What does this fold into?
Amino acid sequence: MKRHIFLLGFFLFTLVHDTKAQKKIYSTHTGQVTLFLNSNLALIQAVNKSVTSAFNRKNNEVSFIIPTNKFRFSNPVMQQPFNETYLEASKYPHSTFKGKVKEKINFEISSPQKVTVVGYLKMHGVKKKRSIPATIVVKNNKISCFSRFQVNTKDHQIKIPQALFKDGKNVVEINLIAKYD
It folds into this structure.
């Protein structure tokens, strides 16, 4: 009987210890996406701090849900045209990304690790395959992800007036921060 109690206690200890040490799914509801558009008028910038994301440590899959109407512009005059005219937030309430980290992540080191995430970005109802550079940092059993990449608005049929693009390239820069618990 003592042996069974010992084995049961050992099994429970191992299960609890393994669960805490090997968390499989990390998530956040406070990720941040910042948009930059180098316009002829001025630098247009918008921040969205309501990004939901999950990272699966077991298979390196990552997903993001970005509510379109949660972007806040440094110039409030841009808020209405962005939501109603350009991204049509009522018709396309969110953008999504689902992909997988190509490289093996070493969860034992805390130094930044450069990776590439390959997956599908869906914006404005248009889904496109993307290869996005990112940096992963693992510290105190928490994972942080940082990325900077560009999106051509024509790829997602987003109609922003050409006059707003200083260089004529229809490109918006995206900065992403996700700190997972």
In short: The helical segments are 2-21, 79-86. The radius of gyration is 21 Å. The chain has a mean pLDDT of 87. DSSP finds two helices and nine strands in the chain.
